[in-house]
Every structure is written in C-alpha cells, then in structure tokens.
Write a structure and sequence with these properties.
By secondary structure, the protein is α+β, with helices and mostly antiparallel strands. The protein is built from seven helices and 20 strands. Helices cover 24% and strands 28% of the residues. Strand 18 and strand 19 form a beta hairpin.
C-alpha cells in the first residue's frame, strides 16, 4: 500500500477546488483494502474519506486525514432469469460508461440515467435519479466492506432504505461502510419512461419513430448537455440542491401567491417543488461573484469559473438558501456533500 502525503485534491473533485489531503491512498482489490486499514490503524490515522469520482463533493478546507480512492473495476453478468439480467458492476467503474455498456448489451432500465457524473459505487449512496428513474428501481443488492469488522456484507434493496436522494449510507452508516460492488436487476424487455422532463419532445425533434434504449439515452444526453456545464470546462457538481418536498396544502397556499410555481405529486399527499425555479425567482440564475457563480442555464448548478475556493461556493449556497427562505418560506437542502 502506497501512502502519499500532502496531495492536491484539485483533480479528484469535479468542482476543481484547490485543496489538499494530509494523506492519500487508493485500492483496487479487497486485499489492498485490508492492508490499507491495518496500516492506517497502526499510524493512528482515524479520519478517512472514501472518494469515487469526486462529482458530489465540495471541499471547504484541507482534509487532515486520509483520502482513499476506490478503484475497484469490473462488470459481470452474475445471473439471469426469464425476464431479467443480474449485472454486477464494481464501485470504481464510471457510471455513464456502465450505462453505455448496459445499453450495448440490451440490458434495459438505466437509459434515463445517462451522463450522470460519478462512479457506480456512489450511485446508491444518494439514490441517484433523473427523468422518472432512480437507482432503487433497479438495484438488486450491493456488497459493502464494514470498516470496523473488516468484513464484506450484503445489503438488499430494502436494507438500503432508499428515499429521495437518501440511503442508509448517507446518514446512519456514513463512513462505516465502503461500497465495493452493486448488482442491478435489468430488464430483458424495455419499459421506456419518456413522459418526464423534455424527453418526449426531444425524441420528436430527433425524428425517432421506433423507441430504443440508445434513442432514449441520446435524448437524455442532449438535454443534459444543453443545460448543464461540462465539469472538464467549468467546475461543478451538478445539481447542488435537492428539490424540496412540502405538503400539498403548503403548495396550494404558495400557488395562490405564485400561480406559476411548478409542483409535482409526491408520496402521501406531498408535492415536490422545483428548487431551480425557486432559486431563479430570487434572481440568482447567472449570478457571479469572482469565480463562484450560479450557472446561466440552470439555477440548480453552482459553478467554479476557475479559482473559486470551497468557502466561496459554500457561502454562495448559503446566500441562496437564505433568500429562498425569506421569499417562499422554503428551506433548501444541499445535495452535495460538504467537507
């Protein structure tokens, strides 16, 4: 195990924030993971951060412990039934590349999740979702390494306790497990979901007459590219805030004052609001102070135009939260992990 010291994290986070880790290491197999944790324990290095693609994180200071890069790779077909394929992907695989692999193999279900940044291992942590599809809809089980017992454990879909951008790995088990692989139950026959967002309209403009997973994926990619910045060009972590969920009574009350406010049915008499709309109404879309800004095409996305610091981005997010609360009485919650 190679334990490096004082390593820049700029290239390891999609915001491109210049910060550093006191220690840095990586692993590509279970035996390396065991050896790494034994070494860290011997050195009394107890503060640890598991890093995947670095696409959902904002560093606001140097990390005083050890940043551990998950580089487990591989994709396997582990089982097959009459109507489904069970496909295991290891945590270090790039998410979009995995989706493209599944489309090429005609494993159906994940096409709406095309072009979401990050790695496979991070996908269950916050139950990533887009255009009517979430990880929970197709996750069969995952393997996670218990950092205390140093043993591998299997979590079923139910054991992950998925919610809206939530799972046990984001709250009660945060930092206690390292996700090593995820097994998906993918369909042999497609059940395309194109009613969300602008997918149907995009397909029409593309001239698609016969639906395929590739066509749906292409439509999603085009939509995302048209309104989201490429992290390789402008530092960002995608949507910075969750869409808030309120009671339908609160939504109806807001609608009397703001007739154009969008709302989408959620569970148990609740309504999901569009955080981007709320932020835009407060005048933040396209805002820039120094190199920290709110993207001109999508108010949900905070960006680093070059040399913004983590505190710059964080303070901007707090200012947005305060202004949305002052105007609408709604508290926005950050989707991005703050360190």
């Amino acid at each position: 195990m190679l334990l490096q010291e004082n390593i820049s994290l700029r290239r390891y986070n999609s915001f491109g924030i210049e910060t550093s880790a006191r220690y840095f290491s990586s692993f590509s197999g279970p035996e390396e993971l065991h050896a790494m944790y034994d070494a860290l324990n011997r050195k009394n290095i107890h503060e640890r951060l598991i890093l995947g693609g670095g696409s959902n994180i904002l560093f606001t200071k140097n990390f005083d412990g050890c940043v551990i890069k998950n580089e487990l790779k591989g994709i396997d077909l582990v089982n097959e039934t009459g109507d489904a394929y069970f496909v295991r992907a290891y945590a270090g695989e790039n998410w979009h590349s995995f989706v493209m692999y599944c489309i090429g193999k005609q494993y159906y279900g994940l096409e709406n999740l095309s072009l979401i940044p990050g790695n496979v291992g991070a996908s269950p942590i916050q139950n990533i979702g887009a255009y009517g599809v979430e990880i929970k809809d197709f996750l069969h089980q995952l393997e996670a390494w218990n950092t205390e017992t140093q043993e591998m454990e299997i979590f079923t879909n139910a054991a992950c306790k998925f919610g809206y951008r939530e799972s046990v790995f984001k709250n009660i088990y945060k930092g206690k497990y390292i996700i090593c692989s995820v097994t998906f139950r993918l369909l042999k026959e497609p059940r395309f979901i194109i009613s969300y967002g602008a997918i149907e309209k995009e397909l029409e403009e593309m001239g698609v007459t016969a639906l395929t997973a590739k066509a749906v994926s292409d439509a999603v990619i085009h939509i995302r590219e048209s309104k989201l910045p490429d992290p390789a060009i402008i530092g960002n972590a995608g949507s910075f805030f969750k869409n808030p969920v309120v009671s339908s009574a609160v939504y109806e009350s807001l609608k009397t004052k703001y007739p154009q406010i969008p709302g989408y049915p959620a569970n148990e008499g609740n309504t999901k609001l569009a955080a981007g709309w709320l932020i835009e109404q407060c005048g933040w879309k396209g805002y820039r102070k120094g190199d920290a800004g709110c993207f001109e095409k999508q108010a949900l996305v905070l960006v680093n135009y070059g040399h913004a610091s983590g505190p710059d981005i964080y303070q901007l997010s707090q200012n947005i939260i305060n202004s949305v609360f002052d105007r609408f009485g709604i508290i926005l919650e950050r989707e991005v992990n703050i360190y």
